[in-house]
Amino acid sequence: MTQWQPVSPALWQGRDDRAEAANALRLCQTIEISRTFSPGHYCDRIALLGFACDEGVKRNHGRPGAAGAPDALRKALANLACHAGHERLVDMGNILAPGADLEGAQQALRDAVHRCQQAGVRTFVLGGGHETAFGHGAGVYDAFAAERIGIINLDAHLDLRFAGRPSSGTPFRQLAQLCDQQQRGFHYACFGVSRAANTQALWDEAQTRRVTVVEDLYCDDAQATLAAFIGRVDKIYLTVDLDVLPGAAMPAVSAPAALGVPLSTLLRLIEPICRSGKLQAVDMVEFNPRFDNDGSAARVAARLGWQIVYWWK
């Protein structure tokens, strides 16, 4: 894999409390770092995989910088406490996006995710812009060709944009088109959508594609809708665009939300997804460390990722 590289162990540094007790551990002491891309060695584990790319954000006229997110988020995760489930994490390195070759980078991610999933390794991808979702989702589809894959997107945007070439605004239209090509159902739900940030054309496309949509204003009452969607699918791919959070809590994204969904509300949606037994793949996207002056936004994202792994059944 020419676009893959292992991560530096220097990213996984933090406080060492092991003199206090044998189980006084943090993620930096329990994470395993793979020096080669060898998912076959890690069956039943969770592969942390970076997608160091923001070409899709550039094409979508956003604020570039998300390519630096995977390593920034690793640093924020490193010092968090290790509890039951976190020891399953293995860092499988980064997929790089050299130059403007977004399509090549998405294919590399797709291949890597397919290999992991086929080896019995679930994937937690740190993007990157939301162009991450096409490569990640396609890899999941490839691995489970006979199963109903449900995509749950926590996002202010539907990302069903039509464009002449892929971008961070097109991944779910691309996945819908892939489903059409493979003659399989497209099962997509988007929670936290801002009507003010999506044109009527995008709402029309969502309706045409029979997308389950819950606006940001109504996420407090979305549990029944979520449960019904979970019940209709075999496996779930969860993608979290961090711009679903209020801009005050998450300014370090390409398009900070004027309203957004509070973290506590978001976590109430995430918990039943994680505990469903159907969650196969997760990513967090659009984090932009260039706009995180004091590191607080990275801490919010890290807590979100930490909680997902802790709940992931």
TrEMBL record:
Binding-site residues, Mn(2+) 1: 130, 155, 159, 241
Cofactors that this protein relies on: Mn(2+)
Protein purpose: Catalyzes the conversion of N-formimidoyl-L-glutamate to L-glutamate and formamide.
EC class: hydrolase
Catalytic activity: N-formimidoyl-L-glutamate + H2O = formamide + L-glutamate
Keyword Metal-binding in record: yes
Keyword Hydrolase appears in the UniProt entry: yes
Record's protein name: Formimidoylglutamase
Family: Belongs to the arginase family.
Pathway: Amino-acid degradation; L-histidine degradation into L-glutamate; L-glutamate from N-formimidoyl-L-glutamate (hydrolase route): step 1/1
PANTHER family hit by this protein: ARGINASE/AGMATINASE (PTHR11358), FORMIMIDOYLGLUTAMASE (PTHR11358:SF35)
InterPro entries: HutG (IPR005923), Ureohydrolase (IPR006035), Ureohydrolase_dom_sf (IPR023696)
Cofactor note: Binds 2 manganese ions per subunit.
UniProt keyword terms in alphabetical order: Histidine metabolism, Hydrolase, Manganese, Metal-binding
Organism: Citrobacter sedlakii
UniProt cross-references to NCBIfam families, sorted A to Z: hutG
A Pfam family it matches: Arginase
